[in-house]
Amino acid sequence: MAVKNQIEIKDVTHAYQTDHGPLPVLENLNVSVPLDSFVAVVGPSGCGKSTLTRLIAGLMMPDQGEVRLHGEIIKAPKSTVGMAFQNPVLLEWRSILQNVLLPLEIVPNKMSGGERKERAMSLLSLVGLEGFEEKRPSELSGGMRQRASLCRALVHRPEVLILDEPFGALDAFTREDLWQIMHELRREEAFTTLMITHDLRESVFLADQVVVLSGRPATSQHILNVDMGHERTLEDLYSEESVRMLAELRHEIQIAQGRSAGEKEAA
């Protein structure tokens, strides 16, 4: 049976217009994200990873090529897509519960007020924020605010979750804690995920597949399938297979940075 893809990026080319002329960012990029899968995208800084998330979210259109969601070309933001960023951007004048409920005030839905609150409270409990519903964002740690941001992105039950380096600004221990929470969310919620990250360990621990982008203008340079199952622990990152995959990804990043072209030819 053929794998059904939730997201299709096909032959996408995009450039930004600057005072010095066009700045090519993506060139003939092809990426497929299977239904209910978790795909991580890594690559050199400035290669266009965040541009890719904005294209999928419908916040901009590519110069060439197309981005499809469930086979339909994306031409505008979709209510079936949730997003979380490195900066949680929570509203200080709203409580954590009110922040999480915000998408349900914007996205059309048939839930009653009670059902909305029940949905939000269920997610907050799932990520360990039960008892903090009435706190303001400034009263929470960075990791707790990011947990609330994940709840807000998922509260309207999106089909697709886009994560743009959501854990990049956190300390190592908090980041690892949130990795495990992401696995818990995947067990409880049905959604397809595309995540942008600079952390190779994060990509291996969370993703089913890792796409390595080349240097700018970026294209798909390498795809790594992560065969670790869905029940993962942090100890799995120290296994022989994980070490091998991390070494493979580091090598590909070096190639993308133009530092190991000779090594690739020799191989």
User: From N to C, what is the helix and strand string?
Assistant: EEEHEEEHHHEHEHEEHH
> Beta-strand level of the residues, as a percent range?
25-35%
Briefly, what CATH class of the domain at 1-80 and 161-171 and 196-267?
Answer: Alpha Beta
CA radius of gyration is 19 Å
**Principal-axes shape call:** globular
Termini separation (Å)? 34 Å
CATH superfamily of the domain at 1-80 and 161-171 and 196-267: P-loop containing nucleotide triphosphate hydrolases
Adjacency order of strands in the biggest sheet: 6-7-8-3-9-10
Write down the CATH topology of the domain at 1-80 and 161-171 and 196-267. Rossmann fold
Q: Could you write a compact summary of the structure shown?
A:
This protein is 35% helix and 25% strand. It is α/β, with parallel strands linked by helices and 267 residues long.
Describe the structure.
- The chain has a domain at 1-80 and 161-171 and 196-267: P-loop containing nucleotide triphosphate hydrolases (Rossmann fold).
- The chain is of the alpha/beta class.
- The relative contact order is 0.17.
- Strands 6-7-8-3-9-10 form a six-stranded mixed β-sheet, with helices on both faces. Strands 2-1-4-5 form a four-stranded antiparallel β-sheet.
- The protein has eight helices and ten strands.
- The model is unreliable at 261-267 (pLDDT under 50).
- β1 (5-18) and β2 form a beta hairpin.
- α2 (96-106) runs parallel beside α4.
- The protein has helices at 49-56, 96-106, 113-126, 142-154, 172-188, 200-206, 240-256, 261-266, and strands spanning 5-18, 21-34, 38-42, 64-69, 72-73, 81-85, 160-164, 192-196, 209-213, 220-225.
- The chain is globular, with a radius of gyration of 19 Å.
